[in-house]
Amino acid sequence: MIKKCLFPVAGYGTRFLPATKSMPKEMLPIVNKPLVQYGVEESIDAGLSEVGFVTGRGKRAISDHFDLNYELESEIAGTSKEEYLTSIRDVMNQGQFSFTRQTSMKGLGDAILNGKRLMGDEPFGVVLSDDLCLTEAGEEGVLAQMVKLFKQFRCSIVAIQEVPEDQVSKFGVIAGDKIKDNLYQITDMIEKPSIEEAPSNLAIIGRYILTPDIFDILEKTAPGKNGEIQITDALLEQAKNGCVMAYKFKGRRFDCGSVDGFVDATNYVFNHLYNQ
User: Fold this and answer.
1) Pick the residue with more confidence: 275 or 28?
2) 231: Cβ–Cβ under 8 A, 6 or more apart, which residues?
3) What's the rounded Cα separation, in Å, for the pair 226 and 224?
4) Count of beta carbons in the 10 Å neighbourhood of residue 99
5) Burial grade of 113 (CB within 10 A; 0-12, 13-18, 19 or more)
6) Which one in 37, 76, 215, 260 has a CA-CA gap of 20 to 30 Å to 155?
């Protein structure tokens, strides 16, 4: 059984300054719902209702969002505006939330390692809120698709998508043996390679399922690209000693860590989902 999901949310969001000077980037709204809530809803829909956040300074708004606001709720109780709280109330009723802090930014691998005290000795999901993943109505979310695969293979799984060659330097990139349509057993991973170094154009995006031995590997992983502890380095080590799968998911992904992607996501949600 996999029931936990980790959200690394300690990053500064520098690409959205000055908006993120005092507001977490994860709280930026796509229409009327913050990015992080979309990710938590995806996690809960996949059966991962024990949600842990690795936060940092200036991130209090995230914990407040998943808590009661007595003054606001009392003010609008019994009015038509109360229905605007339906989605977050549903999330709060279904999820269990815990928080820990990352005191310095040392990379995604370090953020995940900080989550060990929340995830314990169990397999768990990881969602990066910057990557907004949407599927059509009635279809399973990306994390739910990956949970099904985990129940079959019982190993770490990363979500991947094909990207243009001139964009591979923005991602971790995999090489692997094709198991079946959309599924690969990873043989190599490189963090943000040049076009010449990239083993493919299959890029890792912000959805993972990790087995708990990843924590022992991360503790021994030396800083890599940019002096940070890279989750790709730890996953490659895991792949050498066992099995790590890469899954080309069904759905749309928006890079909401960039202004262009954020605007595209807002337009898509407004035109395809919000007015339905």
Assistant:
1) 28
2) 107, 108, 109, 112, 172, 208, 218
3) 6
4) 17
5) buried
6) 37
